[in-house]
Amino acid sequence: MAKTIFVTGGVVSGIGKGITVASLGALLKYKGFSVIPIKADPYLNEDAGTMNPFQHGEVFVTDDGAETDLDLGHYERFMDIALTKLSNFTTGAVYRTLMEQERRGDYLGKTIQVVPHVTGEIKRRLGLPIEKYQPDILIAEVGGTVGDLEALPFIEAIRQYALEVGRHNAMFVHVVKMDYIYPSDEGKTKPIQQSVAMLRSYGIVPDMLIVRCKRPLTAAEREKIALFGGIADENVVEALDVNSLYEVPLNLERQHVARVVLKRLGLKSRKSNLSEWKQLVRRVTHLKKTITIGMVGKYLDHPDAYLSVSEALRHAGAALDAKVQIVSIDAEGRRLPKQIQLVDGILVPGGFGIRGIEGKITAIRYAREHNIPFLGICLGLQCAVIEVARDLAGLTDANSSEFDPKTTQPVVDYLPDQRHVTELGGTLRLGTYQARLKAGSQAAELFGQSKIWERHRHRYEVNPAYHKQLEGTGLVLSGLSPDGDLAELIELPGHPYFLATQSHPEFLSRPTRPHPLFLGLVAAALAKQKAA
Ligand code: GLN
Q: What DSSP element (H or E) covers 248?
Protein backbone atom coordinates (compact mmCIF):
# COMPACT_ATOMS: atom_id res chain seq x y z
CA MET A 1 0.00 0.00 0.00
CA ALA A 2 1.26 3.47 -0.87
CA LYS A 3 2.24 5.68 2.03
CA THR A 4 1.06 9.27 2.03
CA ILE A 5 2.83 12.35 3.31
CA PHE A 6 0.54 15.31 3.70
CA VAL A 7 2.17 18.72 3.63
CA THR A 8 0.38 21.77 4.96
CA GLY A 9 1.58 25.32 5.44
CA GLY A 10 1.26 27.62 8.39
CA VAL A 11 1.82 31.22 9.54
CA VAL A 12 2.00 32.85 6.08
CA SER A 13 1.96 31.77 2.47
CA GLY A 14 4.86 31.99 0.09
CA ILE A 15 7.42 30.32 2.32
CA GLY A 16 8.49 27.68 -0.16
CA LYS A 17 6.17 24.83 0.66
CA GLY A 18 6.37 23.67 -2.94
CA ILE A 19 10.16 23.61 -2.90
CA THR A 20 10.02 21.69 0.38
CA VAL A 21 7.74 19.08 -1.14
CA ALA A 22 9.92 18.90 -4.24
CA SER A 23 13.03 18.49 -2.10
CA LEU A 24 11.51 15.84 0.11
CA GLY A 25 10.34 14.01 -3.00
CA ALA A 26 13.81 14.20 -4.50
CA LEU A 27 15.42 12.84 -1.33
CA LEU A 28 13.02 9.89 -1.22
CA LYS A 29 13.52 9.28 -4.90
CA TYR A 30 17.29 9.27 -4.48
CA LYS A 31 16.78 6.61 -1.84
CA GLY A 32 15.16 4.47 -4.48
CA PHE A 33 11.47 4.95 -3.67
CA SER A 34 8.92 5.77 -6.34
CA VAL A 35 7.22 9.00 -5.38
CA ILE A 36 4.32 10.92 -6.91
CA PRO A 37 3.55 14.44 -5.75
CA ILE A 38 0.10 15.95 -5.92
CA LYS A 39 -1.05 19.48 -5.16
CA ALA A 40 -4.56 20.23 -3.92
CA ASP A 41 -5.42 23.88 -4.45
CA PRO A 42 -8.32 25.28 -2.43
CA TYR A 43 -9.20 28.07 -4.87
CA LEU A 44 -12.37 27.94 -6.95
CA ASN A 45 -10.94 28.15 -10.46
CA GLU A 46 -11.34 24.86 -12.26
CA ASP A 47 -7.58 24.91 -12.89
CA ALA A 48 -4.76 27.45 -13.11
CA GLY A 49 -5.32 27.97 -16.85
CA THR A 50 -7.29 31.16 -16.58
CA MET A 51 -5.30 32.68 -13.75
CA ASN A 52 -3.15 35.72 -14.29
CA PRO A 53 0.55 34.89 -13.96
CA PHE A 54 0.94 38.43 -12.68
CA GLN A 55 -0.90 37.52 -9.50
CA HIS A 56 -0.38 33.84 -9.20
CA GLY A 57 2.85 33.09 -11.02
CA GLU A 58 3.28 31.01 -14.11
CA VAL A 59 0.84 28.41 -15.36
CA PHE A 60 2.71 25.13 -15.63
CA VAL A 61 1.72 22.66 -18.34
CA THR A 62 2.07 18.87 -18.15
CA ASP A 63 2.59 16.41 -21.00
CA ASP A 64 -1.09 15.56 -21.02
CA GLY A 65 -2.01 19.21 -21.30
CA ALA A 66 -3.12 20.07 -17.77
CA GLU A 67 -2.71 23.74 -16.88
CA THR A 68 -1.45 23.59 -13.34
CA ASP A 69 0.01 25.36 -10.37
CA LEU A 70 3.66 26.31 -10.74
CA ASP A 71 4.63 24.03 -7.87
CA LEU A 72 4.33 21.13 -10.29
CA GLY A 73 7.27 22.68 -12.08
CA HIS A 74 9.34 22.47 -8.91
CA TYR A 75 8.25 18.86 -8.44
CA GLU A 76 9.17 17.93 -12.01
CA ARG A 77 12.55 19.66 -11.89
CA PHE A 78 13.65 18.43 -8.48
CA MET A 79 12.38 14.91 -8.91
CA ASP A 80 13.11 14.71 -12.63
CA ILE A 81 9.71 13.26 -13.46
CA ALA A 82 6.85 14.08 -15.80
CA LEU A 83 3.55 14.56 -14.02
CA THR A 84 0.01 14.33 -15.33
CA LYS A 85 -3.29 16.02 -14.72
CA LEU A 86 -3.82 13.69 -11.77
CA SER A 87 -1.25 15.70 -9.81
CA ASN A 88 -3.22 18.91 -9.38
CA PHE A 89 -6.85 19.65 -8.55
CA THR A 90 -8.84 22.53 -7.13
CA THR A 91 -11.99 23.15 -5.13
CA GLY A 92 -13.56 24.24 -8.42
CA ALA A 93 -12.91 20.86 -10.00
CA VAL A 94 -14.20 19.05 -6.92
CA TYR A 95 -17.44 21.01 -6.97
CA ARG A 96 -17.86 20.58 -10.71
CA THR A 97 -17.73 16.81 -10.31
CA LEU A 98 -20.31 16.95 -7.54
CA MET A 99 -22.60 19.29 -9.44
CA GLU A 100 -22.45 17.10 -12.53
CA GLN A 101 -23.36 14.10 -10.42
CA GLU A 102 -26.17 16.07 -8.84
CA ARG A 103 -27.62 17.08 -12.22
CA ARG A 104 -27.33 13.51 -13.42
CA GLY A 105 -29.49 12.52 -10.49
CA ASP A 106 -26.87 10.57 -8.56
CA TYR A 107 -28.02 12.08 -5.29
CA LEU A 108 -31.76 12.06 -5.77
CA GLY A 109 -33.42 12.64 -2.46
CA LYS A 110 -30.18 13.28 -0.66
CA THR A 111 -28.61 16.47 0.64
CA ILE A 112 -25.15 17.12 -0.77
CA GLN A 113 -22.84 18.34 1.96
CA VAL A 114 -19.27 19.43 2.51
CA VAL A 115 -18.86 16.39 4.77
CA PRO A 116 -19.06 13.70 3.47
CA HIS A 117 -19.45 14.64 -0.22
CA VAL A 118 -16.88 17.36 -0.79
CA THR A 119 -14.39 15.66 1.51
CA GLY A 120 -15.17 12.35 -0.18
CA GLU A 121 -14.40 13.76 -3.63
CA ILE A 122 -11.16 15.28 -2.30
CA LYS A 123 -10.13 11.91 -0.90
CA ARG A 124 -11.02 10.20 -4.17
CA ARG A 125 -8.87 12.61 -6.14
CA LEU A 126 -5.97 12.20 -3.72
CA GLY A 127 -6.21 8.47 -4.32
CA LEU A 128 -6.22 8.62 -8.13
CA PRO A 129 -2.45 8.88 -8.70
CA ILE A 130 -1.96 6.00 -6.27
CA GLU A 131 -4.44 3.85 -8.17
CA LYS A 132 -2.97 4.70 -11.53
CA TYR A 133 0.77 4.70 -10.81
CA GLN A 134 1.06 2.66 -7.60
CA PRO A 135 3.96 4.66 -6.18
CA ASP A 136 5.62 3.73 -2.90
CA ILE A 137 4.87 7.18 -1.58
CA LEU A 138 2.41 9.95 -2.42
CA ILE A 139 3.29 13.44 -1.25
CA ALA A 140 0.19 15.58 -1.11
CA GLU A 141 0.60 19.32 -0.70
CA VAL A 142 -2.40 21.33 0.39
CA GLY A 143 -2.22 24.83 -1.07
CA GLY A 144 -2.75 27.94 1.02
CA THR A 145 -2.30 28.31 4.74
CA VAL A 146 -3.93 26.41 7.57
CA GLY A 147 -6.70 28.65 8.88
CA ASP A 148 -7.83 29.76 5.42
CA LEU A 149 -11.57 29.33 5.22
CA GLU A 150 -11.44 27.72 1.79
CA ALA A 151 -8.82 25.16 2.87
CA LEU A 152 -11.01 23.69 5.62
CA PRO A 153 -12.62 20.88 3.59
CA PHE A 154 -9.15 19.82 2.47
CA ILE A 155 -7.83 19.74 6.01
CA GLU A 156 -10.84 17.69 7.09
CA ALA A 157 -10.40 15.37 4.10
CA ILE A 158 -6.74 14.64 4.85
CA ARG A 159 -7.57 14.04 8.51
CA GLN A 160 -10.14 11.42 7.49
CA TYR A 161 -7.84 9.96 4.89
CA ALA A 162 -5.06 9.42 7.43
CA LEU A 163 -7.47 7.76 9.84
CA GLU A 164 -8.76 5.46 7.14
CA VAL A 165 -5.37 4.26 5.93
CA GLY A 166 -3.94 3.81 9.41
CA ARG A 167 -1.16 5.28 11.47
CA HIS A 168 1.85 3.94 9.57
CA ASN A 169 0.48 4.75 6.16
CA ALA A 170 0.14 8.50 6.47
CA MET A 171 1.91 11.36 8.17
CA PHE A 172 1.66 15.12 8.42
CA VAL A 173 4.39 17.62 7.70
CA HIS A 174 3.66 21.24 8.52
CA VAL A 175 5.81 23.95 6.93
CA VAL A 176 6.04 27.13 8.97
CA LYS A 177 8.30 30.12 9.40
CA MET A 178 10.13 31.77 12.26
CA ASP A 179 9.16 35.29 13.06
CA TYR A 180 11.72 38.00 13.78
CA ILE A 181 10.49 41.00 15.66
CA TYR A 182 11.30 44.56 14.96
CA PRO A 183 13.66 46.23 15.84
CA SER A 184 15.62 43.74 17.98
CA ASP A 185 15.48 41.00 15.32
CA GLU A 186 14.86 38.50 18.08
CA GLY A 187 13.49 35.15 16.89
CA LYS A 188 9.93 34.39 17.93
CA THR A 189 8.21 31.04 17.83
CA LYS A 190 4.72 32.17 18.82
CA PRO A 191 3.22 32.24 15.31
CA ILE A 192 4.47 28.67 14.84
CA GLN A 193 2.92 27.58 18.12
CA GLN A 194 -0.37 29.15 17.15
CA SER A 195 -0.37 27.61 13.72
CA VAL A 196 0.23 24.15 15.19
CA ALA A 197 -2.50 24.78 17.74
CA MET A 198 -4.88 25.65 14.92
CA LEU A 199 -3.96 22.51 13.00
CA ARG A 200 -4.59 20.44 16.11
CA SER A 201 -7.95 22.08 16.61
CA TYR A 202 -8.87 20.51 13.25
CA GLY A 203 -7.77 17.14 14.53
CA ILE A 204 -4.36 16.97 12.89
CA VAL A 205 -1.22 16.52 14.95
CA PRO A 206 1.82 17.21 12.81
CA ASP A 207 4.59 14.61 12.81
CA MET A 208 7.20 16.99 11.53
CA LEU A 209 7.66 20.74 11.43
CA ILE A 210 9.81 22.26 8.74
CA VAL A 211 10.77 25.72 9.87
CA ARG A 212 11.84 28.36 7.39
CA CYS A 213 14.35 30.64 9.08
CA LYS A 214 16.95 33.19 8.15
CA ARG A 215 19.50 31.95 10.68
CA PRO A 216 19.99 28.61 12.42
CA LEU A 217 17.52 27.89 15.19
CA THR A 218 18.99 28.23 18.67
CA ALA A 219 18.69 25.25 20.99
CA ALA A 220 16.12 27.15 23.01
CA GLU A 221 14.03 27.98 19.94
CA ARG A 222 14.09 24.40 18.76
CA GLU A 223 13.14 23.11 22.18
CA LYS A 224 10.25 25.50 22.41
CA ILE A 225 8.96 24.58 18.97
CA ALA A 226 9.20 20.88 19.80
CA LEU A 227 7.54 21.29 23.16
CA PHE A 228 4.61 23.38 21.94
CA GLY A 229 4.36 21.39 18.74
CA GLY A 230 4.25 18.20 20.76
CA ILE A 231 6.87 16.52 18.62
CA ALA A 232 10.37 15.12 19.10
CA ASP A 233 13.36 17.45 18.67
CA GLU A 234 14.60 15.50 15.66
CA ASN A 235 11.31 16.18 13.93
CA VAL A 236 11.86 19.92 14.02
CA VAL A 237 13.65 20.58 10.76
CA GLU A 238 15.37 23.80 9.93
CA ALA A 239 14.99 25.19 6.42
CA LEU A 240 17.52 27.97 6.19
CA ASP A 241 17.49 30.61 3.46
CA VAL A 242 19.79 29.52 0.65
CA ASN A 243 21.53 31.11 -2.31
CA SER A 244 20.48 28.42 -4.72
CA LEU A 245 17.21 26.51 -4.49
CA TYR A 246 19.11 23.33 -5.20
CA GLU A 247 20.74 23.52 -1.79
CA VAL A 248 17.41 22.84 -0.09
CA PRO A 249 17.41 19.04 -0.53
CA LEU A 250 20.98 18.85 0.75
CA ASN A 251 20.14 20.96 3.79
CA LEU A 252 17.20 18.72 4.55
CA GLU A 253 19.30 15.62 4.01
CA ARG A 254 21.87 16.85 6.50
CA GLN A 255 19.08 16.66 9.08
CA HIS A 256 18.17 13.14 7.92
CA VAL A 257 14.67 14.21 6.95
CA ALA A 258 14.10 11.30 4.58
CA ARG A 259 15.22 8.80 7.20
CA VAL A 260 12.92 10.30 9.84
CA VAL A 261 10.00 10.27 7.40
CA LEU A 262 10.62 6.67 6.36
CA LYS A 263 10.86 5.55 9.96
CA ARG A 264 7.56 7.23 10.75
CA LEU A 265 5.96 5.47 7.77
CA GLY A 266 7.37 2.11 8.73
CA LEU A 267 9.60 1.88 5.65
CA LYS A 268 13.19 0.73 5.79
CA SER A 269 15.59 3.49 4.88
CA ARG A 270 18.00 2.89 2.03
CA LYS A 271 21.30 4.42 1.08
CA SER A 272 20.91 7.36 -1.20
CA ASN A 273 23.06 8.57 -3.99
CA LEU A 274 23.11 12.33 -3.99
CA SER A 275 26.40 12.77 -5.83
CA GLU A 276 24.82 14.18 -9.00
CA TRP A 277 22.85 16.67 -6.96
CA LYS A 278 25.87 17.66 -4.86
CA GLN A 279 27.86 18.21 -8.01
CA LEU A 280 25.12 20.45 -9.35
CA VAL A 281 25.11 22.57 -6.20
CA ARG A 282 28.89 22.83 -6.27
CA ARG A 283 28.69 23.95 -9.88
CA VAL A 284 25.95 26.52 -9.47
CA THR A 285 27.59 28.07 -6.44
CA HIS A 286 30.96 28.48 -8.20
CA LEU A 287 30.10 29.78 -11.65
CA LYS A 288 32.98 31.61 -13.29
CA LYS A 289 31.29 33.52 -16.09
CA THR A 290 28.31 35.83 -16.16
CA ILE A 291 26.02 36.63 -19.05
CA THR A 292 23.02 38.90 -19.28
CA ILE A 293 19.83 37.87 -21.00
CA GLY A 294 17.24 40.51 -21.72
CA MET A 295 13.77 39.14 -21.25
CA VAL A 296 11.13 41.10 -23.11
CA GLY A 297 7.73 40.75 -21.56
CA LYS A 298 5.01 42.22 -19.52
CA TYR A 299 4.68 39.91 -16.53
CA LEU A 300 8.19 40.65 -15.41
CA ASP A 301 7.30 42.45 -12.19
CA HIS A 302 6.16 39.21 -10.67
CA PRO A 303 9.22 37.06 -9.98
CA ASP A 304 7.29 33.86 -10.60
CA ALA A 305 5.53 34.84 -13.81
CA TYR A 306 8.29 33.23 -15.88
CA LEU A 307 9.58 30.82 -13.27
CA SER A 308 10.31 27.88 -15.56
CA VAL A 309 11.96 30.13 -18.14
CA SER A 310 14.36 31.60 -15.59
CA GLU A 311 15.04 28.13 -14.21
CA ALA A 312 15.73 26.79 -17.69
CA LEU A 313 18.19 29.64 -18.30
CA ARG A 314 19.89 28.77 -15.02
CA HIS A 315 20.11 25.09 -15.96
CA ALA A 316 21.79 25.98 -19.23
CA GLY A 317 24.10 28.42 -17.44
CA ALA A 318 25.08 25.77 -14.89
CA ALA A 319 26.08 23.42 -17.69
CA LEU A 320 28.21 26.10 -19.35
CA ASP A 321 29.73 27.53 -16.18
CA ALA A 322 27.86 30.80 -16.45
CA LYS A 323 25.65 32.74 -14.09
CA VAL A 324 22.71 33.99 -16.10
CA GLN A 325 21.56 37.43 -15.12
CA ILE A 326 18.07 38.16 -16.32
CA VAL A 327 17.15 41.77 -16.97
CA SER A 328 13.68 42.73 -17.94
CA ILE A 329 13.24 44.80 -21.06
CA ASP A 330 10.03 46.76 -20.94
CA ALA A 331 8.25 46.30 -24.23
CA GLU A 332 5.50 48.77 -23.58
CA GLY A 333 7.29 52.07 -23.88
CA ARG A 334 7.49 54.04 -27.11
CA ARG A 335 11.08 53.03 -27.56
CA LEU A 336 13.19 50.10 -26.47
CA PRO A 337 15.08 50.85 -23.28
CA LYS A 338 18.82 51.46 -23.64
CA GLN A 339 19.56 48.34 -21.62
CA ILE A 340 18.96 46.29 -24.72
CA GLN A 341 22.36 47.41 -25.98
CA LEU A 342 24.06 45.78 -23.02
CA VAL A 343 22.60 42.30 -23.14
CA ASP A 344 24.31 39.19 -24.46
CA GLY A 345 21.09 37.60 -25.59
CA ILE A 346 17.41 38.34 -25.97
CA LEU A 347 14.54 36.09 -24.99
CA VAL A 348 10.92 36.75 -25.81
CA PRO A 349 8.83 34.40 -23.69
CA GLY A 350 5.22 33.30 -24.02
CA GLY A 351 2.34 35.56 -23.19
CA PHE A 352 -1.21 36.50 -23.93
CA GLY A 353 -2.88 39.66 -25.13
CA ILE A 354 -2.00 42.58 -27.30
CA ARG A 355 -0.03 44.65 -24.79
CA GLY A 356 3.63 45.04 -25.60
CA ILE A 357 3.47 43.18 -28.92
CA GLU A 358 4.94 45.97 -31.02
CA GLY A 359 7.79 46.39 -28.51
CA LYS A 360 8.55 42.70 -28.71
CA ILE A 361 8.62 42.85 -32.48
CA THR A 362 11.00 45.81 -32.29
CA ALA A 363 13.25 43.96 -29.85
CA ILE A 364 13.36 40.97 -32.18
CA ARG A 365 14.24 43.23 -35.09
CA TYR A 366 17.05 44.66 -33.00
CA ALA A 367 18.31 41.13 -32.23
CA ARG A 368 18.15 40.15 -35.89
CA GLU A 369 19.87 43.24 -37.22
CA HIS A 370 22.56 43.36 -34.54
CA ASN A 371 23.33 39.64 -34.55
CA ILE A 372 22.27 39.27 -30.93
CA PRO A 373 21.40 35.71 -29.95
CA PHE A 374 17.64 35.41 -29.77
CA LEU A 375 15.27 32.75 -28.53
CA GLY A 376 11.55 33.14 -29.02
CA ILE A 377 9.08 31.08 -27.07
CA CYS A 378 5.53 30.68 -28.30
CA LEU A 379 4.36 34.30 -28.46
CA GLY A 380 8.05 34.96 -29.09
CA LEU A 381 7.92 32.82 -32.21
CA GLN A 382 4.73 34.50 -33.35
CA CYS A 383 6.31 37.95 -32.96
CA ALA A 384 9.45 36.80 -34.75
CA VAL A 385 7.39 35.54 -37.67
CA ILE A 386 5.53 38.84 -37.87
CA GLU A 387 8.83 40.71 -37.76
CA VAL A 388 10.32 38.65 -40.58
CA ALA A 389 7.10 38.88 -42.59
CA ARG A 390 7.00 42.65 -42.33
CA ASP A 391 10.63 43.43 -42.78
CA LEU A 392 11.94 40.65 -45.01
CA ALA A 393 8.86 39.47 -46.87
CA GLY A 394 7.45 42.96 -47.36
CA LEU A 395 4.11 42.07 -45.82
CA THR A 396 3.93 45.43 -44.13
CA ASP A 397 0.68 44.89 -42.28
CA ALA A 398 1.44 41.35 -41.30
CA ASN A 399 -0.08 40.53 -37.97
CA SER A 400 -2.06 38.08 -35.98
CA SER A 401 -5.74 38.31 -35.29
CA GLU A 402 -5.15 38.47 -31.54
CA PHE A 403 -2.83 41.42 -31.89
CA ASP A 404 -4.96 43.28 -34.39
CA PRO A 405 -8.34 41.94 -35.41
CA LYS A 406 -8.50 44.17 -38.49
CA THR A 407 -5.25 42.93 -39.93
CA THR A 408 -5.31 42.15 -43.63
CA GLN A 409 -2.41 39.76 -43.58
CA PRO A 410 -2.93 37.31 -40.73
CA VAL A 411 0.47 35.66 -40.82
CA VAL A 412 -0.19 34.31 -37.35
CA ASP A 413 -3.77 33.19 -36.94
CA TYR A 414 -6.30 30.73 -35.66
CA LEU A 415 -6.20 27.62 -37.72
CA PRO A 416 -9.22 27.76 -40.00
CA ASP A 417 -10.21 24.20 -39.09
CA GLN A 418 -10.14 24.98 -35.33
CA ARG A 419 -8.61 21.60 -34.74
CA HIS A 420 -7.74 22.31 -31.13
CA VAL A 421 -11.13 23.27 -29.84
CA THR A 422 -11.89 20.95 -26.93
CA GLU A 423 -15.19 19.60 -25.63
CA LEU A 424 -15.26 22.18 -22.87
CA GLY A 425 -14.92 24.94 -25.42
CA GLY A 426 -11.24 25.56 -24.76
CA THR A 427 -9.35 26.63 -27.82
CA LEU A 428 -5.74 26.15 -26.76
CA ARG A 429 -3.35 23.62 -28.20
CA LEU A 430 -2.27 22.05 -24.93
CA GLY A 431 0.22 19.37 -23.98
CA THR A 432 2.78 17.37 -25.88
CA TYR A 433 3.01 17.39 -29.66
CA GLN A 434 5.61 15.98 -31.96
CA ALA A 435 7.75 18.04 -34.30
CA ARG A 436 9.91 16.78 -37.14
CA LEU A 437 13.15 18.63 -37.56
CA LYS A 438 14.64 19.53 -40.88
CA ALA A 439 17.86 17.63 -41.56
CA GLY A 440 20.88 19.90 -41.40
CA SER A 441 19.07 22.65 -39.50
CA GLN A 442 20.50 24.24 -36.39
CA ALA A 443 17.53 22.84 -34.46
CA ALA A 444 18.31 19.28 -35.61
CA GLU A 445 21.89 19.77 -34.58
CA LEU A 446 20.97 21.16 -31.15
CA PHE A 447 18.50 18.38 -30.39
CA GLY A 448 20.64 15.69 -31.93
CA GLN A 449 17.55 13.92 -33.24
CA SER A 450 14.98 14.33 -35.97
CA LYS A 451 11.78 13.95 -33.94
CA ILE A 452 11.10 15.84 -30.75
CA TRP A 453 8.17 16.11 -28.36
CA GLU A 454 7.47 19.44 -26.73
CA ARG A 455 4.73 20.90 -24.54
CA HIS A 456 2.35 23.47 -25.96
CA ARG A 457 -0.06 26.11 -24.72
CA HIS A 458 -1.28 28.49 -27.36
CA ARG A 459 -4.11 29.38 -29.63
CA TYR A 460 -2.44 30.77 -32.75
CA GLU A 461 -0.27 29.17 -35.39
CA VAL A 462 1.88 30.45 -38.18
CA ASN A 463 -0.70 30.60 -40.94
CA PRO A 464 0.16 27.75 -43.35
CA ALA A 465 -0.90 29.99 -46.25
CA TYR A 466 2.20 32.11 -45.60
CA HIS A 467 4.78 29.34 -45.16
CA LYS A 468 6.13 29.68 -48.71
CA GLN A 469 6.43 33.45 -48.55
CA LEU A 470 8.22 33.26 -45.23
CA GLU A 471 10.62 30.66 -46.54
CA GLY A 472 11.30 32.94 -49.48
CA THR A 473 13.01 35.35 -47.09
CA GLY A 474 15.54 32.75 -46.04
CA LEU A 475 13.69 31.90 -42.86
CA VAL A 476 13.83 28.16 -42.25
CA LEU A 477 10.83 26.38 -40.81
CA SER A 478 13.12 23.92 -39.10
CA GLY A 479 10.46 22.07 -37.16
CA LEU A 480 7.09 21.03 -38.55
CA SER A 481 4.14 19.08 -37.19
CA PRO A 482 4.08 15.49 -38.51
CA ASP A 483 1.45 16.46 -41.13
CA GLY A 484 3.67 19.33 -42.25
CA ASP A 485 0.98 21.95 -41.63
CA LEU A 486 2.24 23.67 -38.54
CA ALA A 487 5.51 25.50 -38.02
CA GLU A 488 6.91 24.31 -34.71
CA LEU A 489 10.38 25.84 -34.93
CA ILE A 490 11.90 28.56 -37.04
CA GLU A 491 15.46 29.75 -37.50
CA LEU A 492 17.44 32.23 -39.55
CA PRO A 493 20.61 30.80 -41.07
CA GLY A 494 23.51 33.23 -41.12
CA HIS A 495 22.53 34.72 -37.78
CA PRO A 496 24.55 33.46 -34.78
CA TYR A 497 21.39 32.29 -33.03
CA PHE A 498 17.94 33.27 -34.14
CA LEU A 499 15.61 30.47 -33.12
CA ALA A 500 12.05 30.36 -32.00
CA THR A 501 9.66 27.63 -31.02
CA GLN A 502 5.91 27.43 -30.87
CA SER A 503 6.25 25.21 -27.80
CA HIS A 504 7.28 25.86 -24.20
CA PRO A 505 10.68 24.20 -23.90
CA GLU A 506 11.15 25.64 -20.40
CA PHE A 507 8.80 23.01 -18.98
CA LEU A 508 11.12 20.20 -20.06
CA SER A 509 14.40 21.63 -18.81
CA ARG A 510 15.94 19.89 -15.81
CA PRO A 511 18.76 21.07 -13.52
CA THR A 512 21.05 18.32 -14.73
CA ARG A 513 19.56 18.07 -18.23
CA PRO A 514 19.22 21.56 -19.66
CA HIS A 515 17.01 21.98 -22.69
CA PRO A 516 18.87 22.23 -26.03
CA LEU A 517 17.23 25.51 -27.05
CA PHE A 518 18.30 27.23 -23.82
CA LEU A 519 21.75 25.69 -24.05
CA GLY A 520 21.99 27.06 -27.58
CA LEU A 521 21.00 30.55 -26.45
CA VAL A 522 23.42 30.64 -23.52
CA ALA A 523 26.25 29.20 -25.62
CA ALA A 524 25.65 31.82 -28.33
CA ALA A 525 25.49 34.58 -25.72
CA LEU A 526 28.80 33.41 -24.26
CA ALA A 527 30.36 33.34 -27.73
CA LYS A 528 29.11 36.86 -28.44
CA GLN A 529 30.54 38.09 -25.16
CA LYS A 530 33.89 36.48 -25.88
CA ALA A 531 34.06 38.02 -29.34
CA ALA A 532 33.25 41.50 -28.04
N1 GLN B 1 -1.15 34.29 -27.12
C2 GLN B 1 -0.51 33.42 -28.04
C3 GLN B 1 -1.42 32.28 -28.48
O4 GLN B 1 -2.41 32.05 -27.84
C5 GLN B 1 0.76 32.87 -27.43
C6 GLN B 1 0.54 31.97 -26.28
C7 GLN B 1 1.80 31.65 -25.54
O8 GLN B 1 2.81 32.36 -25.69
N9 GLN B 1 1.78 30.66 -24.71
O10 GLN B 1 -1.16 31.60 -29.43
A: helix 247-254
